[in-house]
Write a structure and sequence with these properties.
about 500 residues; alpha+beta; globular; 14 strands; 6-stranded antiparallel sheet; disordered C terminus
Length: about 500
């Protein structure tokens, strides 16, 4: 990209979150991520150009120096900070405004600093060999995959029902979503194919913000917050059908085969020979009582994740939260009091960065016992913030159909289906997104939210719907074929 020749017509609206808006290039596999401000600050930006640049550089540094070390470099794309022409940014803001969801328009795009984060467009990957069939990309926000066991947990329900399942009740009660999702992260992180298949089925059934499917860079399946619109599963099946038709003309098998491919990618190591880590957290922390998966259905007791898989690395990083927010909050207060007494210590303790090797060392070398020091408290707070980033990250699985004639390369991973003729082959890549550092000052809000979620769940009795869940059309027709394997080309 030639930054001095930027044209807003080369870019289109891609999506946005709470803090940033993303546009993608119409030809190049690139996206730009721009900061957002509250609408009331649109005339007076709340930070200077230097502060905006530092905010984005912090995201890059946190991703490349901290999260990359914990999650694995092969999964991370940190990107780089770019300085864009202000006129281009202003015209771009005007162009995309009408494409933005109305409920996101309480914030406006930063048109003052010209700073943006440039990243690869993972929904439209450049993988080889090129084929006429556009690539698929699946975005999963898996959320927290374990139950807390900290002695600081005050409500016993938190050790039995996972945060996601409890949070669903709160989101429906507050009107954020019309229906509860029956997805449970503990099923996805279990490493058991049946439970993982079950979890992804429920992500498809009720995607919310946790599941999207892109085809050739265009989002073809997602849900809108607060919307009553029913998801068009038949349309999704028609999109997926060309990728999975091999000696089987029935649409009912397509979705099951799609889920199997996704499970295989999530369990793959992306090239290494990591062993399966079983009993990673004890039986008690691997089942959520609110999950509608019947434990009796597990025909094969094997459970655990390959140690080089994306789910294992994310789960290990999430488990840096050893105290739960209830145990962490007193340590946060210790640090906060120290900073009130000695404001200049904020820099030495790296409360706002820089996110470098020293920051990583602080959280990795934290003592096991509390010695009452502010250094111990800071290290635990840093661990918690990193764990929260891992609990809120997104996994991107890109699948590109491989040509039939292509010969097998040495070292290629073979995952074959027992059906004939030969099943489809995919080049694939797995990446992790949304790795921004969580602000130190957000911890009191996290505690309040935790209390609201637990109280709401206890108040509603955690009731599950009466009677059997409505099945997706044909989704389980072949869902139990957990031995189904497909041919993968790791990238």
């Amino acid at each position: 990209m030639e930054l001095d020749k930027m044209d807003e017509n080369d870019w289109k609206y891609h999506g946005e979150g709470n803090k940033s808006l993303v546009v993608s290039h119409v030809q190049l596999s690139r996206v730009l991520r721009l900061l957002k401000y509250p609408a009331e600050d649109s005339e007076n930006p709340p930070q200077t150009v230097e502060q905006a640049f530092r905010q984005i550089q912090n995201i890059v540094d946190f991703s490349s120096n901290v999260m990359s070390s914990l999650l694995g470099e092969k999964f991370i794309h940190s990107g780089e900070v770019v300085k864009l022409p202000l006129e281009f940014v202003r015209q771009l803001s005007i162009k995309v405004q009408h494409q933005r969801p109305a409920w996101r328009c309480d914030k406006v795009m930063d048109i003052y600093s010209g700073c943006a984060l440039c990243l690869p467009n993972l929904t439209s990957p450049v993988l080889h060999p090129p084929t006429h069939t556009p690539p698929l990309c699946i975005e999963i926000k898996p959320k927290c995959g374990f139950l807390p066991s900290s002695n600081h947990v005050s409500r016993d329900i938190k050790t039995k029902v996972c945060r996601f399942c409890m949070h669903q009740h709160y989101k429906v009660a507050s009107g954020k979503w019309k229906r509860r999702s029956m997805y449970c992260p503990l099923d996805l992180f279990s490493g058991n194919r049946q439970r993982m298949h079950f979890a992804i089925r429920h992500l498809i059934e009720e995607p919310q913000n946790n599941f999207k499917i892109f085809k050739g860079g265009q989002c073809i399946y997602s849900s809108k917050e607060g919307s009553d619109d029913s998801l068009d599963l038949n349309s999704l099946l028609q999109h997926l059908r060309p990728y999975f038709l091999y000696g089987n003309n029935r649409l009912r098998a397509v979705l099951s085969d799609f889920i199997q491919v996704l499970v295989n990618a999530l369990l793959s190591g992306g090239g290494g020979d990591g062993g399966v880590v079983t009993d990673r957290q004890g039986e008690g922390r691997s089942f959520c009582e609110a999950s509608v998966f019947n434990k009796e259905r597990i025909r094969h007791g094997s459970q655990g994740l390959p140690s080089d898989s994306v789910l294992f690395r994310i789960l290990q990083t999430q488990m840096l939260d050893t105290l739960d927010i209830e145990g962490l909050y007193p340590l946060y207060r210790r640090v906060e009091q120290h900073l009130q007494d000695f404001p200049k210590e904020r820099t030495r303790l790296q409360i706002d960065g820089p996110y470098n090797e020293a920051f990583l060392e602080k959280l990795q070398k934290c003592p096991t016992e509390d010695d009452g020091s502010v250094e111990y408290a800071v290290a635990k707070v840093h661990q918690y913030r990193v764990a929260m980033t891992a609990k809120d990250c997104s996994i991107m699985v890109a699948l590109v159909p491989s040509s039939e004639e292509e010969e097998d390369d040495e070292g290629q991973r073979r995952l074959r289906d027992f059906l004939t003729p030969r099943p489809p082959a995919f080049s694939y890549s797995v990446s992790i997104l949304d790795l921004d550092p969580k602000p130190f000052d957000s911890i009191p809000r996290q505690l309040r939210l935790d209390q609201k979620i637990v109280s709401c769940y206890l108040r509603t009795g955690g009731a599950l719907p009466k009677g059997p869940l409505p099945p997706l059309p044909g989704i389980f027709a072949s869902a139990e074929r957990e031995e189904c394997m497909l041919l993968f080309h790791p990238v």
